[in-house]
Design goal:
single chain; 558 residues; mainly beta; Tachylectin-2, Chain A; six-stranded antiparallel β-sheet; four-stranded antiparallel β-sheet
């Protein structure tokens, strides 16, 4: 077994017991500390030569490949590639390998700090893999942070399911019944978010395997403080209600390794039921990751979008690639479809009137979850100041927009309205912020819990803010702390940002956030949007310009 560590060193242990487990440390130069931190190793035969190689994740969100130049019984690992396939998932990558698409080569799942599980298809071969991004949110599920997936056959079918650890210490169980078409991307279902009520002290990392050779899956769980919890599967027992559950023997091992010595402390074996929770203190929240925006291009995609371009991104056609919906001064709502597997891919203009939009000049599209059903709806502001609304009746994989004028009857935000959605008063209903030409923001509170929901004007100058001309409110999580931030663009090209004030409970209160945009040269008349364009787990900055091009600033923060 291999164990990753905070220092980056990978610890290897060999089971020398004829039956059961008896672990001995073994040492390899390539596994010692290098520039990696928070190593997360996975064993698999990457090059198809019959022995086990290593792919290791790290704090930087990349993947390191260590090839086995020895044999299956006497491994000799060497560092072969410090950034395999140029993969970057943001931070805290946790890899897992499996043939996901039934083509007899190993594909790749990678958990990251945002709680996503990202799927890379092997478009190379069994002996020379090349991993290509196919889906940034396998199963359509996002945990609260630091997803650590492992495979396990939970039910009686032949398809491996997922057990996923995370920042809070719980385990999530995700079943998989893949259809014939698109087996890797379809058929996932979250069975339970807190599986078996097991909870570590934080940053749980599960692994299931038959350690003692009895043809039953045993269970190991790493945690934030370096503990390794070990359950032996002693089979199935019958309950009075005829339900079956596993009875396991728990052995807790805390491993402390200093140079050549390993000190091992073992508690006495205690038979427990698998449902019994491990009660520990709650994990401490980690520091957020500060964004750092670096200029890439003033003509992203070489697109000419019409004057006063206002971009928004969503996967329209269900191919797991973000497409572009863009408003402009002429009142068009253009739909550009993006081809697969490239950040700067070719864009194909599919329509100048997406959803048959004819709602007025200076169209300003915003994708946001207005109705709280976890998918993205479409709101469009315009020159007249009204808001048009298309409710998404589809799901996370396939959008189905249906026009619904009811919620925004009577809502007028002022000329050149730009909407943003957030629950400001903690009543469980999303409220509305509307920026306008005068540089101010209107606040509307949502009233009612029935189909007759309406928005009622509460404040005409929210935060007493005046940005000059052209206020553009945006809600986004820029620093990956799982909390919303309020970002406000302006016609002058300046961007202000606010974060939650933790000293005020209940209704949302804002305080100024770090000046993430101070050093950037932003276009005058720009319309910003934040989206994970390069699929690395953090939000990049795209700005539509008065000239009709897109400015692209990549987020390289760690």
């Amino acid at each position: 077994i291999l164990l990753g560590s905070r220092s980056g060193e990978i610890f290897a242990f060999e089971n020398r017991a004829e039956s059961g487990t008896d672990w001995y440390p073994i040492h390899f130069p390539a596994l010692k500390k290098n520039k990696r931190q928070f190593s997360s190793p996975a064993l698999a035969d990457i090059d198809g030569d019959g022995d086990l190689d290593i792919i290791s994740g790290n704090r930087r969100g990349k993947l390191e490949l260590l090839l086995n130049r020895g044999s299956a019984t006497k491994p000799d690992w060497i560092v072969h590639d410090v950034n395999i396939s140029q993969i970057d998932v943001g931070s805290f990558s946790t890899p897992l390998l499996q043939d996901m698409d039934r083509d007899n080569d190993l594909d790749l799942l990678v958990g990251n700090s945002k709680g996503l599980i990202i799927y890379y298809e092997n478009q190379g071969s069994k002996t020379a893999p090349h991993f290509v991004l196919r889906n940034t949110r396998i199963s359509g599920i996002q945990l609260k942070g630091n997803a650590a997936p492992t495979f396990w056959k939970w039910n009686a079918d032949e398809h491996p399911d997922l057990v996923v650890g995370g920042r809070e210490g719980y385990l999530s169980l995700i079943s998989h019944i893949p259809p014939e078409k698109s087996p890797a991307l379809r058929g996932w279902n979250l069975e339970i978010a807190h599986w078996q009520n097991i909870k570590s002290i934080g940053y749980s990392t599960p692994h299931l395997a038959d350690f003692d050779g009895d043809n039953k899956s045993d269970f190991m769980l790493g945690d934030e403080e370096g503990n390794l919890l070990f359950w032996i599967n002693s089979g199935m027992i019958k309950q009075e209600d005829t339900k079956e559950k596993s009875t396991l023997i728990l052995t807790e091992n805390m491993l402390e390794v200093e140079e050549e010595e390993k000190e091992e402390e073992q508690q006495a074996e205690t038979k427990i039921a698998f449902e019994a929770p491990i009660t520990e203190k709650d994990p401490e929240e980690k520091e957020p990751t500060e964004p750092k925006f670096e200029f890439v291009s003033a003509r992203y995609g070489n697109l000419e979008l019409g004057r006063r371009a206002f971009p928004a991104f969503i996967d329209v056609d269900g191919d797991n690639n973000l497409d572009l919906i863009v408003g402009n001064k002429a009142g068009e709502l253009r739909y550009y479809r993006r081809e697969q597997n490239s950040v700067d891919a070719e864009w194909t203009l599919e329509s100048k009137h997406f959803l048959d939009y004819r709602g007025g000049k200076n169209s300003a599209p915003v994708f946001t979850d207005l109705d709280g059903d976890t998918d993205l709806d479409l709101l469009v502001g315009n020159q007249q100041g009204s808001i048009q609304y298309w409710e998404n009746k589809g799901n996370l994989e396939f959008a189905d927009f249906v026009y619904n004028p009811t919620p925004f009857i009577g809502v007028t935000g002022g000329r050149n309205s730009v909407p943003a959605v957030i629950d400001l008063n903690a009543d469980g209903l999303n409220d509305l912020l509307v920026g306008n030409f005068l540089g101010q923001i209107y606040k509307y509170e949502r009233t009612g819990i029935s189909k007759g929901d309406r928005f009622q004007l509460d404040i005409r100058k929210y935060l007493n803010l005046d940005v000059g001309l052209g206020a553009i409110p945006i809600i986004a999580d820029l620093n990956n702390d799982q909390q919303p931030e309020l970002i406000i663009g302006s016609d002058a090209g300046k961007i202000k940002s606010f974060q939650l004030d933790p000293e005020n409970a209940g209704s949302i209160n804002w305080k100024a956030s770090p000046e993430y945009f101070k050093e950037l040269k932003l276009p005058v008349g720009g319309n910003p949007v934040f989206v994970d364009l390069d699929n690395d787990g953090d939000l990049d900055l795209i700005i539509g310009s008065e000239a009709g091009t897109l400015y692209y600033f990549r987020n390289t923060g760690r």
